[in-house]
Design goal:
49% of the residues lie in helices and 17% in strands. By secondary structure, the chain is α/β, with parallel strands linked by helices. A five-stranded mixed sheet has the order 2-1-3-5-4, with helices on one face. The termini are far apart.
Amino acid sequence: SDKPLRHKLFLFFLGALFLYQASFYMLKLREEIKFAGDEKNALAGQHIAAGKFLKEAVPPNEWLAVYMDAGAIPYFSGLKTVDFGRINDEKLTRGNLSLNEAVDYFYSFNLGAAVFTSVSLDKLDYGPEAEAITSDPRFMQYQLVKKYPSPLVPPPYHEFVYLRKDL
């Protein structure tokens, strides 16, 4: 009978499949460890640093807007935050605001500070909505006080911190 042979072939195939899967996951794990390390560096060098700076520089009763990647900034700043990343702001999350309505919503809080994500370290650059917000005449009441460059290579984005001039 060839039952023992089929059994051995099945076990061999199962073992080969296990080895293939284990080696695949080991390679993926290496990538994930690098990704996690990069994210930790970015978080410490940008989000945590920006949040701690804001906690020191902005009175606790002021509002903060974070345009696109809030990350840990609201937590470390302790400020009430408008999340233009549209993750936890009910009005923005619905996604039914026009460009002009989104700009007006940004200014409706009389923000003490704003943090913008930028793909360029030289100038604020993150799409038409960010451009509309920062080119509005009301943005003249804010000044750029800090830039947090990305520690990653190639850098995916940078964080620009603006404070209202009267603070």
